[in-house]
Write a structure and sequence with these properties.
With 216 residues, the chain is α+β, with helices and mostly antiparallel strands. Helix content is 54%, strand content 8%. A four-stranded mixed sheet has the order 2-1-3-4, covered by helices on one side. Strand 1, helix 1 and strand 2 (29-32) form a beta-alpha-beta unit. 37% of the residues are buried. Bound molecules: glutathione (GSH). Glutathione binds next to helix 1 and helix 3.
Length: 216
């Protein structure tokens, strides 16, 4: 098979690309990377030295594509079924990329910081940093909520912005409840019911026991 996705089923940024692949029904070989295994980590580092997933390898075109948003851009560029994920219209395309960036920068990344903090050794915790991250997420919710057109981020079309929204909102809800933002909660519920998303979440389910914030 020409496409290989280096990923982990629990990885939030991998979800963005899995949703895009399932949305467009693009066949690919899933290559689960166990970063805790030194040999597997080294093999992955030979593909992408930063050892951050997702990474898409397209043997047919001889391309290695890192970074979740860039993977979705690549799919939209080369696979007609994925073209609508990043609208060709420059203004619509810019709005989709803006939402993708806002979800990543103001919800997803601060949430990652909270998870990393939870995994620090005793004596190395940073409660001030966690509070700052939580405040940033709440600010992100407030910023983005009025920008969601409905039913999807851009209206009727399902795009990269929705692929980015699901992992950000799904996971951040564990750190800062969406209850104060009913329109975002409703949007997250609609996303969860989307077949590409439901499949992504079902595949993550067996690994969820390893998610550090699952018990609050
Ligand atoms: N900006 C990157 C972020 C990728 C990222 O942070 N991936 C995490 C998993 S969600 C990872 O690889 N973590 C492993 C590590 O940092 O060692 C993207 O959009 O793909």
């Amino acid at each position: 098979m020409s496409l290989t996705l280096y990923y982990h089923p629990l990885s939030s940024f991998c979800w963005k690309t899995l949703i895009a692949l399932y949305e467009a029904e693009i066949p690919f070989e899933p290559r689960l990377v166990n970063l805790g295994d030194p040999a597997d980590r080294a093999a992955f580092q030979a593909v992408w030295p930063l050892a951050k997933f997702p990474v898409l390898r397209d043997e047919g075109r001889g391309q290695t594509v890192p970074e979740s948003s860039i993977v979705v851009e690549y799919l939209a560029q080369h696979f007609p079924a994925a073209a609508g994920l990043v609208p060709a219209d420059p203004d619509l395309g810019r709005q989709v990329r803006l939402l993708d960036r806002l979800f990543d920068s103001y919800i997803h990344h601060p949430f990652q910081g909270i998870v990393s903090e939870r995994m620090r050794p005793e004596g190395q915790h940073d409660p001030y940093g966690v509070e700052a991250a939580r405040a940033k997420i709440a600010e992100g919710y407030g910023l983005i909520a009025p920008m969601i057109a409905g039913p999807w981020a851009m209206g009727e079309a399902f795009t990269l912005a929705d692929c980015a929204a699901l992992p950000a909102l799904y996971y951040a809800d564990y750190a800062v409840s969406l209850d104060a933002f009913p329109s975002l909660r409703a949007y997250l519920d609609r996303l969860k019911a989307r077949p590409s998303v439901a499949r992504t979440l079902a595949e993550a389910e067996p690994f969820f026991q390893y998610f550090p914030l699952k018990d609050g």
